[in-house]
Write a structure and sequence with these properties.
This protein is mainly alpha-helical and 465 residues long. It contains 20 helices and 12 strands. The strands form 5 sheets. It has a 3-stranded parallel beta sheet. Strands 4-5-8 form a 3-stranded antiparallel beta sheet. A two-stranded antiparallel sheet has the order 6-7. It binds one RNA strand of 75 nucleotides through strand 7, helix 6, strand 12, helix 11 and helix 17.
RNA sequence: GGCCCGUUCGUCUAGUGGUUAGGACUCCAGGUUUUCAUCCUGGCAACAGGAGUUCGAUUCUCCUACGGGCUACCA
């Protein structure tokens, strides 16, 4: 049977790294096994759920390339379904009404020192329930957890987990306003959506026995569970907003490629069983397998992300990089031709860890540099530098044809004739042209920029420095 | 507090009774390069601790320590 899985974000914020990882592993598993990948919006918390977040989450998913198979499922549109399920449980005796107020319960908790619900309405006679109902006392609905038993399940990642029912109190499945809680909606939805594998974060392990109890109460098949280890911040705590930029969108804005981000995320808690690390999404799908997912939480390391990212950029075609850049800034390089842009990309991609870095470091290809580091300048701009640069200018002015090979030949012979070292000539020229002492081969830069631009910039430098 | 889960270099990880404990990132040193980056070579660096089981434990069992998660009329 082909698996059906779902990613179920609650729209209380943008898609964050942890959510993206959960979505990714669902996606990898189901694409590897030719199954379906669904997305369900868990928007039952009306207070915190926002429409704009739903849009943002979908946008991020699309950007990442995690395409889902059917229409989005909104929990807010399925209240009838939940109500029916709750009444069913009430009718079958698997659930009961609890008229204890929150204050009352808090008091009991405080006095007993126990956190769990003491079952005070579990076995009241029907007449008492009738009386409270008539009085209009607000009530919650709780699941009647079978006593003296235990519930266990086989987690695809954590193995067998068993919890005694003494540890599970009669938890609430419907609030006093009648609305269903997470554990109920989750089970009902997963059942009706025909989900075969529930793949989610490890923080849900303790919810799982409760949910299994509900499947049993309904008489439904229990899906297979796979809990993923957490992604942690540098402080070993679960990655959250406290750790800074954790939204997928911010990584997009910083110029990371979706495939690179996904590649890095896939390596957090999983390995392909080989020593390969830089992989395309397609390759990861082919190799993905739960047996290589492990249990320990993994700290998110931006340094390694940067490395993966630079590897992806270096491997990518110039065309793809250009379109990636244009997604960030649609105007980039529009003052020139696309082929010029791709020449720039070709020179710069090997030395960039993100698209934004590539864009920043290649500004001088499109506009004359205006900002020069004087401190840096003084290191190599000596008394005789102006004369040298003047001579180079003359040579370049007479150079014909203007191509990389001629540039290299002429400049090298100039240096040899005058017994100048490379640094003495190249550094000032490079700095005049680009405003920096770093970058690709100077001959390539000169060639790409063209005679007119080069001479103009040298002239500018000569008058200013 | 209770319950559940985890623990190999700083980080991501390989490893399932016998290995010089392997790789990657970071960092350091060298080489290549006009510079920077890339690339290449080399280096630093780990089995949380203690008891067992065993001829032999990183690998199996138990205990301790540490870390994380859950314990809501949040999801």
């Amino acid at each position: 049977m082909n698996p059906r899985v779902r990613f179920a974000p609650s729209p209380t914020g943008q898609l964050h790294i942890g959510g993206a990882r959960t979505a990714l592993f669902n996606y990898l598993f189901t694409r590897h096994n030719s199954g379906q990948f669904l997305v369900r919006i868990e928007d039952t918390d009306l207070e915190r759920s926002k429409k704009e977040y739903i849009d943002q989450i979908c946008e991020s998913m699309t950007w990442l390339g995690l395409d889902w198979d059917e229409d989005l499922v909104y929990q807010s549109k399925r209240t009838d379904m939940y109500q029916k399920a709750i009444s069913h449980l009430l009718d079958s005796g698997h659930a009961y009404r609890c008229f204890a107020s929150k204050q009352e319960l808090d008091k009991i908790r405080e006095e007993s020192g126990s956190y769990s619900y003491p079952g005070i309405w579990r076995d009241r006679p029907a007449s008492e329930t009738e009386t409270e109902l008539e009085k209009g006392t607000p009530f919650t609905i709780r699941l009647r957890v079978p006593e003296g038993e235990e519930t266990s399940f086989d987690d695809l990642i954590y193995g067998s987990i068993t919890v005694s029912h003494t540890e599970i109190d009669d938890f609430i499945i419907a609030r006093s306003d009648g609305s269903p809680v997470y554990n109920l909606t989750n089970v009902v939805d997963d059942h009706y959506m025909e989900i075969t594998h529930v793949i989610r974060g490890e923080d849900h392990i303790s919810n799982t026995p409760k949910q299994i109890l509900m499947y049993r109460a309904f008489g439904w098949d229990v899906p297979t569970f796979a809990h993923l280890p957490m992604i942690l911040g540098q402080d070993q705590k679960r990655l959250s907003k406290r750790h800074g930029a954790t939204g997928v969108q911010s990584y997009r804005d910083e110029g990371y490629q979706p495939e690179a981000l996904l590649n890095y995320l896939s390596l957090l808690g999983w390995n392909p069983g080989t020593e390969e690390e830089v992989m395309s999404l397609k390759e990861i799908i082919e190799k993905f397998d739960f047996s290589h997912v492990h249990k320990k939480g993994a700290i998110f390391d931006e340094k390694k992300l940067n490395w993966i990212s630079s590897q992806h950029i270096a491997k990518q075609s110039n065309e793809d990089i250009l379109s990636g850049i244009r997604q960030i800034n649609s105007d980039w390089g529009n003052s020139t031709s696309d082929s010029f842009c791709m020449n720039v990309i070709d020179l710069m991609k090997i030395r960039s860890k993100s698209l934004t870095e590539l864009m920043e470091h290649s500004r001088y290809f499109f506009e004359d540099p205006t900002c020069f580091d004087q401190k840096e300048l003084r290191k190599f701009w000596k008394d005789d530098t102006c004369d040298i640069v003047e001579n180079v200018k003359t040579i370049l002015n007479e150079l014909e044809p203007w191509d990389e090979q001629s540039l290299e030949e002429k400049l090298k012979s100039f240096m040899e004739e005058n017994e100048y070292g490379f640094g003495k000539v190249m550094k000032p020229i490079r700095f005049s042209i680009s405003g920096t002492v770093n970058g690709p081969s100077l001959f390539s830069i000169l060639n790409l920029l063209g005679k007119e631009t080069v001479l103009r910039r040298i002239e500018l430098a000569l008058t200013n420095f």
